[in-house]
Design brief:
mainly beta, 2 helices, 5-stranded mixed sheet, 7-stranded antiparallel sheet, 206 residues, 14 strands, 10% helix
Length: 206
């Protein structure tokens, strides 16, 4: 599993563009919005993103985005990727991982009416930044996630949100849906009663 996520993280960073969106001020950090149009990999069908205040105390608040590209549900129902077991429900999984890529915490959020293409659509839109065209993901769905800082039991690590399939007992039955996913991914350092987020792992060495 560790090797799978190591490979996955590599593609996440490529697909996310490894940059914060131009909409973020210095007080905020986000990941998962920018699209790398020069990437040779196929566009992922699923996507998540995160936006949060860069430095927080006591309680961590994140705005989380999730959804899929047009056509995903039809392809899933037709088992195009050979990963549909014929049962289960889609959920969002919050993962907190340490620097050794070991999962420290996993938390499941239901994605109600995930088959609703309007509710969970992800569109690629463009804007012009000077002479350069910038493309980013526009999510229909988002929610606010709140975590008590005491629940984060490590001093350095990373946050990301993944989409997977669970059974009626909320046990993961399919983690790799084989359709490609771009993940919002943030590194963090926790000191005393404060946490700092960054899109770069260099935060560990500052």
């Amino acid at each position: 599993m560790k090797k799978v996520y190591a490979v996955l993280l590599f593609f996440v960073l490529l697909l996310s563009g490894c940059n914060e969106t131009t909409k973020s001020s210095n007080d905020f950090v986000d990941s998962g919005f920018l699209v790398n149009t020069e990437n040779s990999e196929p566009t992922p069908w699923l996507a998540t993103a995160i936006k949060t205040k860069r430095i927080q105390e006591s309680v961590v608040n994140l705005t989380v985005y999730a959804g899929y590209a047009s056509g995903f549900i039809d392809k899933w129902n037709d088992d195009v990727w050979n990963s549909n077991p014929g049962y289960g429900k889609f959920v969002l999984q919050r993962v907190i991982r340490d620097r050794e890529e070991i999962d420290i915490s996993n938390y499941i959020y239901p994605l109600i009416d995930f088959g609703d293409k309007n509710k969970y659509s992800v569109r690629i839109v463009g804007t012009t930044d000077g002479t350069d065209k910038v493309e980013f993901r526009d999510f229909s769905f988002n929610f606010d996630d709140e975590i008590d800082l005491n629940e984060i039991t490590i001093e350095q690590g990373a946050f990301f949100y993944d989409i997977c399939l669970v059974d009626d007992n909320t046990q993961v039955v399919v983690e790799n849906l084989n359709c490609g996913i771009s993940l919002g991914f943030l590194y963090f350092i926790k000191t005393d009663n404060q946490i700092t987020f960054s899109i770069y792992d260099s935060i560990f060495y500052e």
